[in-house]
Amino acid sequence: MAEKFLIRQGDEEVALELRREDGVTAVRRDGDEHWYHCELSRVGETGLYVLMLDNEPTELYIERRRGGAIVTIGRHTFDYDVGPWRPGGTRVRGAVGGQGLVKMIAPMTGSIVEVRCVPGATVAAGEVLLVMESMKMNNELRSPSAGVVETVPVSAGQRVKAHDLLVSIRTGEG
To answer: Which residue of 11, 36, 50, 163 has the fewest CB atoms within a 10 Å radius of its CB?
Structure first.
């Protein structure tokens, strides 16, 4: 069985699945079909690591910090937050008018069973906005924050892929 993790860099979020079987580790982006063989080896007692991803080596320097890591690959440095995966939404900064825009994205591939919101509706944090069926289970997708529904580009019966936009909500936060 795969574990899911939410990786966050700035405003971008991605859910990754990690599977360990018979001493072999594989990783994939949630919703993708292809699993990548993955092996991470530390070089000595330093922060230098070699990542083998489908037998392609990459050197990286990892500085662990509470809740994540700072990863340097070549000349590029990335500051990541890592946490357990939970269905929800992503917050997009820089929205106009001092307000924020929250985008609820599909946490997995599935079918929309029920849409419980419409553009212009005021919603509360935690309110069920959609019901989505995936792997023969119905999942209630709840609003990550209070606000006004801006768009609902999905309808009942529609098939969606992981990371598709489901609902966008305009909040009063900046």
So the answer is: 11
